[in-house]
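Dear H.,

Thanks for agreeing to be a second pair of eyes. The structure we're designing against is below in token form, covering all 134 positions.
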């Protein structure tokens, strides 16, 4: 089943873990990365099955959640950034301290901050703050 990842061991080193797994850590994982992983897991647990997420780590997002993802646009004009994301259409954007997206983070109509994990923010595209159509 897509998105149902299991712990895989190779010579005692975990390669992929399912959500909530407790396993040995062989590499240092700082708050920035932990925040991104928590944001990805939250989207995987709460978003509609057909939701598309924009994140610089789209390949890892897909492997962790089984959900569709794209890289955010590299665009200097905020309005054009929003236009490109909405054209996909992207439902969620993950923004962390290592990556910013002014077109979504500042004065962005229909993009709302829905969660924050260790400095990593999840923005959702919707009609209004409570999800209702105006």
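And this is the sequence the design step returned. I haven't edited it by hand at all.
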């Amino acid at each position: 089943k897509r998105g149902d990842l299991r712990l895989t061991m190779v010579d005692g080193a975990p390669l992929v873990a399912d959500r909530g797994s407790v396993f040995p850590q062989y590499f240092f994982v700082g708050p920035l990365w932990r925040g991104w992983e928590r944001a990805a897991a939250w989207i995987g647990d709460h978003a509609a099955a057909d939701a598309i997420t924009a994140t610089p780590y789209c390949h890892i997002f897909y492997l962790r959640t089984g959900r569709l993802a794209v890289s955010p646009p590299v665009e200097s004009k905020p309005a054009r950034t929003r236009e490109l994301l909405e054209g996909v259409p992207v439902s969620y954007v993950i923004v962390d301290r290592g990556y910013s997206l002014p077109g979504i983070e500042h004065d962005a109509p229909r993009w709302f901050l829905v969660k924050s994990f260790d400095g990593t923010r999840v923005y959702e595209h919707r009609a209004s703050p409570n999800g209702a159509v105006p």
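Two observations from my side: The chain has four helices and seven strands. The two ends are 37 Å apart (CA to CA).

Warmly,
E.
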